[in-house]
Amino acid sequence: MILLFLLLACKPPLTPEQVAYQALVDRFEQVAAERVALRSAERKIALDEAEAAVLAASWGEAVNAVRIGLLASPADAELEALAAKIEEVAVLRDKDGNAAGAAALYEGLSSIWVSKPDIAAAHLARAEALARRAALTQRYGADNLQDTLSGQQGIQAAMLASALDMVQAEYVEEPNLQALVGRARLRLTLLAADPQAQKAFPVLSSGAFAEWLSELEPPAPLELVEAHTQLDALIASANALGGVPLETATYEVADAAIGELDPWTRVIWPAEIASWEAHHAGVYYGVGLKLAVDAAQNVLVEFPIPGSPADEAGIHQGDRVESIGGDDLAEVVGGPRKQAFEQALLGDEGTGVQITVDREGKRREFEITRAPIYPDVVIGWERRADNSWSWWLDEERGIAYVKILAFKSHTDEALDEAIGELGARAVVVDLRGNPGGDVNAAVNVLDRFVAEGTLARLEGRVPLDTGPEVDPETGEVLVAWNVGIPGHALEGLAVAVLVDGDTASSGEIVAGGLQELANADVIGSQTFGKGLSQALRTDPERGYALQFTNLHWALPSGRKLDRTLAESHGILPQIIDQLTPAEQFTVAVAERQRNDDRRRILQHVLVVLRRLDEDLVASAVAE
């Protein structure tokens, strides 16, 4: 014992690096223990809530409670038994014709059985079919009919014909025209039988159109010309025999025939093309305010987007919003009031909006002109007092953090500006919740971390036009679009990537590429599995567009990502760690506390600066 004591006494002291590492290990073990306790409590609460919801026949609440419980305690027998009861109710709703109710439960069941992909996929497929039927009823119900018909204005059969030609020529796989016409017939059969549609278009109630549909021969293998002819006949007969407007009939036929090829292929009609283009360009027209709700349910300015009209007008972080456009919306509070204010801020470019705020008890009014607003696509760990982002997760150790919200045409430039010259030794790339976007931007982001090699692969019936292989002026051989170019500051850094089930498309290309080419550790849960790329063809003369799937994406290794093509779809993290709702809430509370602390510090700084300014004025007057 004395010898052991002497040996321990003679042990050299730990270096600062060893002390720091041990502190990290201790903190990790502490968090792990906290998570075990949290999940155990969460499982118990979820089970109690699920059982109570089942007894009360509150099936939506039961779905949510069972889902949460199985996240906290996978393969729990008691929770799985409750899931089976929910499935029984879904089957009964389906048989009773309650499409919306059955769809909601089947969709919920697909989220419950994430650990059993085959079961989840079957439930999701049924949910989607029922949801389409429910959406049909909703579209033509009295509450939505006028909005529906307004949105269908300008639709022409010639647009459908043009879209079908493009799909036949360029869709990723040669479309089955027989199935395509069959889907259109089924949709119109559902329309003819739908009670709400019959009220909207009373001639449908005569049954003449339904009878005509029932007498059609089953769809047979078709050539393109025959498909055009049959779709035109469906539209004309819906109008002549069912009293369905030509715009409505064309919409339903196109939505079924083309829109059901996959979840991302669709026609963008004249009434929606402007807003659609604005959304995909990552721009909207407003003043550039990010709003939040405090504990007292007041709507506050979380921050003005730097350089936006609101920022230049002098609106400050922490200002309490009193009214927008003269409307104080006093009848609503909290989240609904915030959403209403956000909607009121939007409008056409160049139009003005009046914003009234309270700043430390003083009322201030601003007249601001709306302008194009480009939301952040890359954000950091936290905002500094001056509203700029801090990109350091741990500055002392040289660990940077960047969250990529979406891939737009300028995402790679935003990343360069954020951390390109930061001098980090390692970086955490957070892609959780990233739905994808511009594929070229994703490849360019990946190129920032990878010096050479193929970054991604594409497959499709029509090869992607990637431009010339040789510079026409110099004769120099050009680097292919999907090959890494050396010389970026982020090459060779240690990288960790955070993903979840909502990481999709371009986000998966970056996560998988970093995993395969940059030796990145991917942490989280299996990603969504959208390995399909879409093209956009716009017809300016007719005023419509077609978004359609034209390519399959694959990782540098050749592994396909899409859930329809591979069992092991998406990106599989090396470290699987999915936060439960209780854990997400705990993280959110900590982040909100950090934001509140920062807001209070900023308000204190502003008070001090204002007092200094007043003192300077008083001194000048005295002199």
Provide an overview of this structure:
The protein has 623 residues and is α+β, with helices and mostly antiparallel strands. Helices cover 48% and strands 15% of the residues. The strands form six sheets. Strands 9, 12, 13, 14, 16, 17 and 20 form a seven-stranded mixed beta sheet that branches. Strands 1, 15, 18 and 19 form a four-stranded antiparallel beta sheet that branches. A three-stranded antiparallel beta sheet has the order 5-6-7. β10 (382-383) and β11 form a beta hairpin. The protein is globular and about 90 Å long.
Major β-sheet, in short?
Answer: 7 strands, mixed
- The strand count comes to 20
Beta content? 15-25%
Terminus-to-terminus distance:
80 Å
Structural class: alpha+beta
Note poorly predicted spans.
1-9
Whole-angstrom Rg? 29 Å
Give the oligomer, counting copies of the same chain as homo and different chains as hetero: single chain
Percent helix among the residues? 40-55%
The gross shape turns out to be globular
State mean pLDDT (0 to 100 scale). Answer: 85
